[in-house]
Amino acid sequence: MDYRILCLVALVFWGVWGWLSKVATRTDPASSFAFWATVASIVPIAAFALTAAPKHGLKVSPLMLVAGVCAGAATVAFYLALSKGPASVVMPFTGMYILIPAVLGIIVLKEPMTVMKGLGLGSAVLAVFFLSR
Length: 133
Prior knowledge:
Blueprint: H1 3-25, H2 30-56, H3 62-84, H4 87-95, H5 99-107, H6 115-131
């Protein structure tokens, strides 16, 4: 499957997840939502990992574990922010995380920096600025 279609699928599911997160944290504790949403996320992740395992195995590396801890810490901070602030600010603000791997990819991985990428990064910052007002 083309990576752009997979990006679109992720975009739609993350969008629904974000909206459901705000709806749920309006009436239920952020800690409960964070726990149960994470538990439920194991189902598709395990299905993916176990169907790919015969080809690649389920090896582990320190980078994988650090990435998981980062994702967990971000999830906790996100749900707490969402329970205290408006979704129209929290979602775009936390969505700006995309700038970090994009900039690190350019600096650390030596991915090419183009005018279009620069405009895209700048547009992301402006979008968050305007959406959070």
